[in-house]
Model the fold of this input.
Amino acid sequence: MKFNRKNITIGENVKFGKNIRIGDNSTIYDNVKIGDDSVICNDCVIGEPLSEYYTDINYKNQRTTIGNNAFIRSHSLIYAQVEAGNHFSTGHRVTIREDTLFGDNCRVGTLSDIQGKVSFGNYCWLHSNVHIGQNSTIGDFVFIYPYVVFTNDPHPPSNVCTGPTIGDYTQIAVGSILLPGIQVGENCLIGANAVVTSDIEDYSVVIGNPAKYKCDIRDIPSQENNTMHYPWMHNFSRGMPWENVGYDNWLKNQHG
Amino acid sequence: MKFNRKNITIGENVKFGKNIRIGDNSTIYDNVKIGDDSVICNDCVIGEPLSEYYTDINYKNQRTTIGNNAFIRSHSLIYAQVEAGNHFSTGHRVTIREDTLFGDNCRVGTLSDIQGKVSFGNYCWLHSNVHIGQNSTIGDFVFIYPYVVFTNDPHPPSNVCTGPTIGDYTQIAVGSILLPGIQVGENCLIGANAVVTSDIEDYSVVIGNPAKYKCDIRDIPSQENNTMHYPWMHNFSRGMPWENVGYDNWLKNQHG
Amino acid sequence: MKFNRKNITIGENVKFGKNIRIGDNSTIYDNVKIGDDSVICNDCVIGEPLSEYYTDINYKNQRTTIGNNAFIRSHSLIYAQVEAGNHFSTGHRVTIREDTLFGDNCRVGTLSDIQGKVSFGNYCWLHSNVHIGQNSTIGDFVFIYPYVVFTNDPHPPSNVCTGPTIGDYTQIAVGSILLPGIQVGENCLIGANAVVTSDIEDYSVVIGNPAKYKCDIRDIPSQENNTMHYPWMHNFSRGMPWENVGYDNWLKNQHG
Done:
């Protein structure tokens, strides 16, 4: 019942790869490029024009690029000047503003709101209702859970706009808030509802408001087996590039 | 101006009761059943196919059931395999994933996001922007306030997925977070922004991060009269089955 | 590509000013008035009927008024009986319920949810995903950041419904929760994730759960220059009426 090509609007200079499916009532604006084997579900908008569109009669949409094998769920709204790698997927009703860059295999959950000028590495998984402020930088394999907020203004309102920076493999649990300009290391765990007010070193677990160091992440036992749970890459592989070979083997191959 | 039957899409084997109104631009997928006297407002989706729809050409939508007297506000998205009892109502833009079960007289507020594999009793009222993770179990007469999050992974990311369990009559105030597998008793009050990290006994009030026991709920005086406010059923009846008879009389009749 | 006048529905007694643009798939219900030079983007609803519409065949939509130079982004839903001044703007997917009053130059961010019976002064800026409960009163130049929640029921559920009151120039940082009936003074700063449980005097900075007084706002140095940052009106002018003249000069002219 989907993909009837009913009420679809396609702009100029739109480039579709092979085997693309576009849902009903979706709009693809000018200068959008979508890779092979991608699905854009119903009621989506790709390449939403910037606000200058409304005031500048010479406005031209800049390039928007979605890679191969994308899966964009209904009511997602992706602005122009977003660039997403391969295997990009979204939940419903996501909003992604301009000048956002995603590596490969990123996921953005239902209702998440990316404010633009944000850079994500590969395999970043954002669950539902994540809010990422402008000028944030996120590494590879970073998972961000519901209702996390990245901020960027240290003394609101001001003219400073500096988002957090997050290292590879770090996990940011539900409801936590990262204050502007914070540097979070690799392999950290930010606890539920934490307010992170200062930089965090690699392998740290922090909790509370303001967030305080609780322990080394490598000291947390697994609830599934007799190992330590972290670094989690040894205990979790679903959807990861090491899913069939194990993390150590994958890592070895990465470094050649 | 609503209910012009404009741009409505109805799948196969859809069963409508008597006196059903379907808003413009709404889609009802295969194998949906909606009871008598129900209203589906504009731009809704009922019976949204699971993700296998996109990859399996033999995919068939399983049964979705909405009871009598439903009132589904605009832009609500309800997946296949949801079962809701009578007098079910939603706010705008709710998302309800598959394998979710609602008793009678449940309400789900604007922007709430039910992740699926969740069971609600009767008279559960979820206000705006509530997030319920998979494998949660909620009793009868449980009210959940805005920005509450139910989680299910104790050491993210892992393969464990165990949601909270909530007893009858419990109230969960704004912004609180329930950690995975937590058992909350009956007639509890979880304070605003609490992080519940351990089980809670009946009649407990807990606050803070981590949540700590504050008092017995029966020791909180009413702001409306000279009684104790809780158990709240003696002081609040709007929309409840005891609205015209009082809680004690209603309860007596329940037990025959 | 926008403004094709495709699938637009306009009710009775709708009054448009000069130079109005209405996006595709938008619906304007009965008795809506929109001022000059306003833009309503795609998929918006203005003047959404109250719930009596569904049950009362004599229901009539009361007046909804949007001033001049409005900019309403896509998928915004504004109920009947909302009154907004000039230069009103919204993000995407906002929900504004009936009996809400905005002064001039207010902004409501993406996904924000105003529950109705709320009064905003001039130059209130709500960022993304703000939730304002019924019976709240907000002064002028109040900025509210993402995931802030205003509550109104002190002992849920009860029949009491008393929202917070916020003084002019106050800043309410991300994720904070204001409990029912709280009075917040002018020129305050409520810290990230604070839970405000008691009244707050002018010029106070409060943090934590429950929120405690931290310092006088006038003791916070700027990160941009050698002055104190607050009152912020001396250090921030973008979009403010004193943008070209400075706050002191503007204030002098105000008092004439």
